[in-house]
Every structure is written in structure tokens, then in C-alpha cells.
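>> Question from a student workshop board

For tomorrow's exercise we were told to take the sequence and the ligand below, predict the bound structure, and bring the output to class. My setup keeps failing. Could a helper post the expected result so I can at least see what it should look like? The ligand is nicotinamide-adenine-dinucleotide.
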Amino acid sequence: MTMTVEHTLLTRVPDALLIGGRWRPASDGATLAVRDPATGAVIKEIASASVEDGGAALDAACEAFPSWSETPARVRAEILRKAFDLLMERKEDFALLMSLEMGKTLAEARGEVAYGGEFLRWFSEEAVRAVGRYAPSPEGHGRMIVTQHPVGPCYLITPWNFPLAMATRKIAPALAAGCTVVIKPAELTPLTTLLFARLLEDAGLPPGVVNVITTSHSGAVSEPIIRDPRLRKLSFTGSTPVGVRLLEQAAGGVLRTSMELGGNAPFVVFEDADLDKAVEGAMAAKFRNIGQACTAANRFIVHESVAEEFARRVTHRVAELRVGRGTDEGVEIGPLIDDRAVSKAESLVADAVERGARLRTGGHGIDGPGTFFEPTVVTDVAAGSDILREEIFGPVLAIVPFSTEDEAVAIANDTEYGLVSYVYTESLSRGQRMIERLATGMMGLNMGVVSNAAAPFGGWKMSGLGREGGAEGIHEYLQTKYTLTPSPFA
Ligand code: NAD
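>> Workshop helper replied:
Here is what the output should look like for this input. Compare the format with yours to find the bug.
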């Protein structure tokens, strides 16, 4: 990848806020710097919205709402479909941009473009199917009409780890339902959303339907938007502590909320698993996105009779992973997002080792430039270790042995999170038992990756509220009205 290609792409990314169809600087002229985590270098300076800009973005979304919500579903659908087609044409631009601002490899970034794009295609298809029903009342005197209506202007907040897919997973169903939005991408990786907003303009989206605010003052800018009575929906993807705080703010206005929060996924390998498949699944579930996914397997719970063999095989694979800048050929593991992420991974490994775990490979940050961490395996992790309780969000695979199925279930469910679980077993009845016994909103049964635009993504317990994707996804942006009329024969 030449510097010229990167440079040309970066100059094409807007550096301003998009409010009511106009690209403009922050009202106070403030900017924020976006860095490449592989080098630490600033790659672009962009506008940093003030509280006033946040208010203006909400004004624009409110102004655009009446006409967008009355736009025929077919027209809205076709704009989404056009956006999908344009994204496929511009796939390489988006992949490179994500690799530059977030650090993931180009191969993974291309995968995210494919995944993120599917939400545009899926919800272009769902837009025309948000229908209601007509039914006689049971006693026969009335007729019940059930209709679906867009909830109103929405505020969307996205995290840094999947800069495109987290945006399309919210924008596409909102637009399909007839809602207008203000989106605030993460300060660490805002460029992809800016480039995507430009793509939406090219797809024919009217001004004010999608407004983008980038800011280094997320809390201060967001709170007045969330507390504004004109806002009707908050959709947040990010960490559980921030989600809890936003739910408190949303309570005042009884806002509809969707919360896609943190995870602590168990990856259970039974003694009857196909170990080749389990190792393959483990590599995907753990090392995808450099371990920085809410769905990342956090705890490998492996039957004691196969734990050593599993550890030996994964250690062999992990030790060979090639670490480097995501844009470089052959690299499999990019940098972590920042210094804090490196220190966190390091201290989680150190705590596990202090409590008796065996370090099989890796375990340390790599000297800069960039914020890299060695792909790591620790085995025999003791109960109570921090690594079993906290989201690792890094390339560290931690193994805990178990002896009975009940014990595996108890360990797997011993967390306040409940986003996703992974189970490897060749036994059908055991697989079915796990579906019923593991307390997570999603499960990979002999699969290491579950995300799919056609499926309801979301968590149980403190991993969140609501679902994104699938037939469920559009309902997060719709509200139901029931009307009773007399029977025409009364
Ligand atoms: P984060 O909670 O720090 O930030 C998420 C977003 O919230 C960012 O845009 C950030 O700027 C904003 N934010 C932070 N403080 C805020 C405040 N006080 N008010 C308003 N906005 C605020 O999370 P992160 O570090 O960007 O992302 C990683 C986390 O996201 C992990 O916990 C991960 O599991 C979770 N995540 C969940 C899903 C899911 O679908 N469940 C998907 C991806 C990431």
C-alpha cells in the first residue's frame, strides 16, 4: 500500500460536521486529531462538535422527520439499496480507511464492509414489510386495526471497534422505519462514519435525515440531546458502564432505548468436540478484530480430558500469528486501539499468572511505535482471576479446565454479561441442552462467529436491551398503534 493511496483517500474524507445537509466546522472552531494506532501518527484533524452543534444536529433531524416519515417505504428502501451498491463499489476505500483509523487488517476490514453492507441490503428489503394487521374483536362488535409508526428522531452512538458495521446496523433500520437520526461515532475512529455519510448523500438521501457529529466531548454534547423531549429514541453500542449512565439520562424522557453493551463470552469445549473444528472456531472467536469485539470469546472452558491437547494446538497457532500494521501484506494481528488497552491486557495476564496460571506464549506489550500486544495463551486460569470477570478486549486466550457438564454451565453463566456463548460438542442432545442452559442472547453451536444481518443480534443480562438485525431490528425504530372501530355490521 503506497502512502499516496492512503493520502488521497484521507483527503477525500470530510473533516466537518454534517448538519441539515451542510458540512460545517464546529461552532467554536474546535478540532480533534485522529491517529493511526499502528504508528501513533495523526492522520486527520476533524471538527469537534460543541453542545450547540449537538443541538443544531437534533434541530435538523426534527425538521427532516415529517417529510422523511411520510416518504413512501419503497423510496426509502431504494435509497438504502443504492447505498449498498455504492458501498460495494467503494469497498476498498472503506476497508483501507478502517484499517488506518482502527488498526484491523485489510482482510478483516473487507469482511466488515461485507457485513456492514448487509444491513443496508437487509433493511432495504424490510422497509416495505413493516406492516400491521386488521382483525375482528373476539366478541364481534369491533374491528381492531394495528399500525406501525416511526418512533421519531433518534440519537445513535457507536463504538470504535467496528466503525462501519455499528453505524449501518443502526442507520439502516432507522431509515427503513422512517426515522431521522443524529449519529455520533467514537472519537477514536470517526472517519468511516464521515465517509459513509458522504456516500449516503450520493445515494440520494435528503438533507437532515442523517446528521453526523464528531466530538471529543461525548458526555457533554450527548446529555442535552438525550434529555431533549423531541428525541424519541436512543440507540447505543459501547461499554456497559456508559450504557448504564445513558439509560439513567434516557429515563427522564421515557425514551425508547437499544443497548448493545459489553460481553464476557464463554467458549465451551466438551470432551466429545471435534478438536480441529474447535481450534478453528477458537481462533476466529478470539482473534477476530485483534480480540477487540464484544462477541470475542473471553473464557475458554475446556473439558479436562482435552484441555492440554486443545492448549497445545491453539498455542502452536497463536505463536505463529503475524503481528503488524493492518495494511501490510500477510499481517494477521494489528495494533490495539491505544496505550490503555495494552496496559489492561498486560495487567490481566499478570494477575492470572500471579494466581497460578501458566503463560504458554506472549503476555506482553510490544515496544512502539504503535500499540501492539503479543498474541497470548494462558492456561489453568484460577477461579477469581480478573481475566475471567472483565472483558479482555485484546489477543489473549485464557483457558479454564472443567470436569462435568454442570460445572461447565456454572462457570459459563458466572458473569453479569450475557451476549454470546460458543459451544463445541458433537452430541446433539448436549448441544440442545446448552441452548436452554446458557444465559446468553446468542450462541455459536460449533461455530466461532455468529454475526449476520438477517439475525437478531443482542444480549441478555447486562449485555443489553433490544436487538439489531433480523426481522426484529426494524421494530426498535417503530411504535405500535391500535385503533378500535365498530364492526361494519353493527
Ligand atoms: P465506550 O462505552 O467507551 O464508548 C462507546 C461510545 O460512547 C463512543 O462513541 C463514545 O464516544 C461514547 N461515549 C463515551 N462516554 C459517553 C458519555 N458519557 N455520553 C455519551 N457518549 C459517550 O465503548 P468503546 O470503548 O468505544 O467500545 C468498546 C465497548 O463496546 C466494549 O465494551 C464492547 O463490548 C462494546 N461493544 C458492544 C457491541 C454489541 O453489539 N453488544 C458491539 C461493539 C462493541
